[in-house]
């Protein structure tokens, strides 16, 4: 019976994701003339004050702790997650894949008491008030953050910084149906507070269209975060919101910026999103016109030069329902003819090779294309999906489904 119910869950997921709030794909836009390409220095300081125990703290974005359309929620896990062996699997505690800490890495969540505590399996889908996070609200998030101690490097006399951390963390969406890992982050930043955080990405390729698809992905160095104008005056470290707002990428269905979405329109770095096309998560790291767009902008990144005297992160704000709100200050992009458009500058990131794009529909993000844009079609599809689920449920009860996969 276990494999029958597991297969039934996969079918229900496919139907639910078909009817979920959709994402509209749009043609690529030309670069905004007000956007300026910035060259970040390749190397950091070679001499200066040694850093021996720096702390890296980041929640990536609100979506990384939000409710999911299927599988319960999205969450962070310490370490490099193992292989479930096949697609369509929602993690359970017995899988042993989830970790609250491993080596220098731990996952922390804000509590109702106003403190950050070590995350737990039981609390991974709860907001600070103890309510289950929900995909129905973009302000509902757990607020979980990855924390890595033990960073080593040097801080130059001019304020430039290079720090390397050892350890991995995993970004788990749809309860585990799609996940990837980032290992050994490196921060290189110049005296003006401009730089980037890179890491080695790894993970598994999944697909909404074919829940049996599951393949190990090659390791690749990606840019986790582009940093601009971080304040280096504070000897303790710095807190900065990485680039997202105003960043344009191509080949991943980023919609055009308009008066409605301009306050939250943008993207994570190009190499980051390029890798997510392989994992099936690309649509959750770029503005796609979906109902979750407001939860996608990057949240505050904290870097402390000494973990023993770390910068205290802000607690997520809570709405009237007690749900945590994303830490994404709204920053309107300056117009092209504004003097402020030159500082800080926001680059345009073209993707490396459009031929590597995943065909539409292969990601795990609900999409809306072609005839589906007709407002009558979506309700009809929902009705059809509900009928299909009911039929499958009856067949499952009668034990007439020919499932052949062995249980995990």
From TrEMBL:
Highest taxon of the source?
Answer: Bacteria
Q: Does the keyword Signal apply?
A: yes
- Looking at the UniProt entry, the stretches that span the membrane are 376-398
Keywords attached to this Swiss-Prot or TrEMBL record, sorted alphabetically, are:
Membrane, Signal, Transmembrane, Transmembrane helix
The protein's name is Htaa protein
* This protein's record includes keyword Signal: yes
Q: Give the range the annotation lists for the signal sequence.
A: 1-26
List the source organism: Microbacterium aoyamense
């Amino acid at each position: 019976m276990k494999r029958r119910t597991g297969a039934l869950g996969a079918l229900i997921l496919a139907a639910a994701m078909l009817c979920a709030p959709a994402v509209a794909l749009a043609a690529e836009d030309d670069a905004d003339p007000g956007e300026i390409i910035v060259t970040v220095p390749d190397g950091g300081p070679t001499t200066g004050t040694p850093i021996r125990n720096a702390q890296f703290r980041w929640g990536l974005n609100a979506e990384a702790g939000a409710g999911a359309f299927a599988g319960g929620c999205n969450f962070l896990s310490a370490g490099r997650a193992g292989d479930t062996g096949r697609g369509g699997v929602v993690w359970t505690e017995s899988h042993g894949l989830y970790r609250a800490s491993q080596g220098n890495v731990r996952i922390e969540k804000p509590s109702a008491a106003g403190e950050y505590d070590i995350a737990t399996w039981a609390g991974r889908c709860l907001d600070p008030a103890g309510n289950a996070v929900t995909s129905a609200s973009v302000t509902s998030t757990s607020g979980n953050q990855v924390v890595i101690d033990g960073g080593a490097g040097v801080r130059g006399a001019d304020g430039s910084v290079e720090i390397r951390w050892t350890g991995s963390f995993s970004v788990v969406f749809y309860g585990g149906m799609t996940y990837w890992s980032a290992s050994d982050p490196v921060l290189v930043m110049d005296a003006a507070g401009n730089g980037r955080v890179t890491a080695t990405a790894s993970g598994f390729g999944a697909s909404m269209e074919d829940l049996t698809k599951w393949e190990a992905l090659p390791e690749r160095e990606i840019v986790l975060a582009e940093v601009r104008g971080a304040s280096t005056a504070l000897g303790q470290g710095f807190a900065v919101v990485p680039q997202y707002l105003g960043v344009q990428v191509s080949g991943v269905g980023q919609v055009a910026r308009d008066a409605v979405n301009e306050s939250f329109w943008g993207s994570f770095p190009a190499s980051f999103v390029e890798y997510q096309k392989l994992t099936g998560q690309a649509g959750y790291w770029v503005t796609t016109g979906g109902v979750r767009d407001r939860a996608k902008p990057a949240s505050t990144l904290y870097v402390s030069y000494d973990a023993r005297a770390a910068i205290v992160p802000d607690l997520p704000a809570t709405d009237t329902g007690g749900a945590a709100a994303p830490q994404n200050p709204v920053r309107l992009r300056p117009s092209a003819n504004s003097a402020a458009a030159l500082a800080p500058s926001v680059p345009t990131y073209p993707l490396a090779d459009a031929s590597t794009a995943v065909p539409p529909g292969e990601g795990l993000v609900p999409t809306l294309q072609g005839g589906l844009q007709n407002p009558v079609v979506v309700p009809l599809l929902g009705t059809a999906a509900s009928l299909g689920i009911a039929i499958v449920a009856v067949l499952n009860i009668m034990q007439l489904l020919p499932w052949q996969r062995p249980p995990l």
